[in-house]
Design brief:
Largest sheet: 13 strands, antiparallel
Number of strands: 19
Helix content: 10-25%
Number of helices: 9
Distance between the termini: 60 Å
Length: 452
């Protein structure tokens, strides 16, 4: 039951050759909404019932923001707990990073709860996802073509297609987020950074907000702005990014504002394995949102699906009943708080491409079939050693109907430290009621804002 599911030879091939044709036949696309969910997951549960049938939740809640919650899920108790003593029983369902933590920390455990598959999306995402299945191509790993609004590749044939489903998944239109971050030392002491983020999305949005955008050509799908407000030594730091399909100058454009020099400057280093500003090297730019940015430095192999125990429906640690200090414990997250469930995930292996470079020579992604969000990522160095594990604690956000990681954790196995990001516990939940103009995300507007 826990073995890799069989997939076609085309899906097993890495993306070393171009071009890559991603669209499928009308007969394959007809499975969407029948045996497959409208975004490509298997609608049925598994044989023993430990993974249930997909039962989409309705939209509910105010756009101005509410912490994720579900009265049924939140009242449940764990079915069992995985520890160092019994981990061998569940080894086939664990990422290498989770196994490392269980093996090396007697205090580490994983409380496993009943599984729920309630992630849903708006109807227009379903409609255009089905259209994409027979029309959306992938010209190379960084250039989707002729894709409209929905998930780009609901029936993926390569690892790069799975990652693009994640990168341009539906996340609303305009949003303000309070992103609190912690660097947690080996003894559990932590350093807190507070960031306010704003974003305007252009691809997976309702047709009346941006009629039928394509990813080819301009390729714009996101404009992003962040401002650091704490600690004082970093307050006033600003980052602006325009996210496009394509690599190099065709892809991300970024600018940084430093309070020390009072200027907004182009920042080509906002990419890949350069450390994100203010994280002291604990998060690379392409680890934000589990993975973002160019794919060109890797070959992407689709290894199939696997039943795994992953962080899911993590409403408790995303809510305001938990404080920042409650999360931090020596060596790892306070494991009394997270919720784990069994789900089917796509497994994608990214291997460094000859002639390129990255600190991670291999990355293995475990991507949820229902949301296309990565629950975990194992990161390896040039010698094949496990360097890090990223963990995305998924929640279903019912007010806009999508899934997000709140929080995300990066474990650094070489130092024993870990980094927590996307925490809103002591601030406010995401606000999707805000409205931004395109001009709000242009360099001159950010420069003016900085000098006020």
């Amino acid at each position: 039951m826990h073995k890799f599911m069989s997939i076609s030879l085309a899906a097993m091939a890495c993306l070393a050759a171009y071009p890559v044709i991603a669209k499928v036949s009308p007969e394959e696309a007809a499975r969407l909404g029948t045996e497959l969910t409208p975004v490509g997951a298997e609608k049925a549960g598994n044989e023993d019932g430990s993974i249930p049938e997909w039962t989409p939740a309705p939209q509910k809640g105010e756009l101005s923001g509410a912490y994720p919650s579900d009265p049924v899920i939140d009242a449940e108790k764990p079915l069992f707990t995985i520890t160092k003593a019994n981990m061998a029983e569940y080894e086939a369902m664990l990422s290498e990073g989770h196994k490392y933590l269980l093996q090396n920390y007697d205090s580490y455990k994983m409380n496993v709860y009943p599984s729920h598959r309630s992630v849903s999306f708006p109807d227009f995402i379903y409609e255009w996802t089905k259209w994409n299945a027979t029309n959306c191509d992938l010209l190379d790993v960084d250039t989707p073509d002729n894709c409209k609004i929905g998930f780009t590749y609901p029936i993926p044939q390569s690892g790069a297609e799975v990652i693009w489903n994640h990168r341009v998944r539906y996340r609303g239109s305009d949003v303000r987020r309070y992103n609190n971050q912690m660097i947690v030392q080996r003894d559990g002491q932590f350093q807190l950074t507070k960031i306010i983020e704003e974003a305007k999305l252009y691809y997976a949005v309702a047709p009346d907000k941006n009629p039928m955008p394509l990813l080819k050509g301009d390729g714009l799908f996101l404009k992003y702005f962040s401002q650091t407000v704490e600690p004082p030594r970093m307050a006033g730091l600003m980052l602006l990014a325009h996210e496009r399909s394509g690599a190099g100058p065709e892809g991300r454009q970024a600018w940084l504002y430093s309070p020390a020099i009072k200027r907004l400057r182009r920042a080509p280093t906002v990419c890949c394995d350069n450390p994100y500003e203010g994280t002291d090297g604990h998060q690379f730019y392409d680890q934000v949102d589990m993975f973002n940015g160019v794919l060109e430095r890797y070959t992407w192999k689709l290894l199939g699906k696997r039943e795994m125990i992953v962080p899911y429906n993590s409403n408790r640690i995303a809510g305001d009943s938990v404080k920042f200090a409650d999360l931090a414990a020596p060596g790892h997250l306070n494991q009394d708080l997270p919720r784990y469930e069994k789900h089917r995930v796509w497994v994608v292996e990214a291997s460094i491409r000859e002639g390129t470079n990255h600190i991670f020579h291999k990355r293995v992604f475990y991507v949820d079939e229902d949301s296309w969000y990565p629950q975990a990522v194992d990161n390896y160095d040039a010698r094949g050693g496990l360097m890090q594990m990223q963990e995305g604690h998924t929640v279903f956000v019912s007010n806009i109907q999508t899934a997000l990681g709140t929080p995300e954790v990066i474990y650094h196995f070489n130092s024993g430290r870990y980094f927590i990001t996307a925490m809103a516990n002591e601030d406010k939940p995401n606000d999707w009621s805000v409205k931004f103009d395109d001009a709000d995300f242009e360099p001159n507007a950010i420069q003016k804002r900085a000098l006020k």
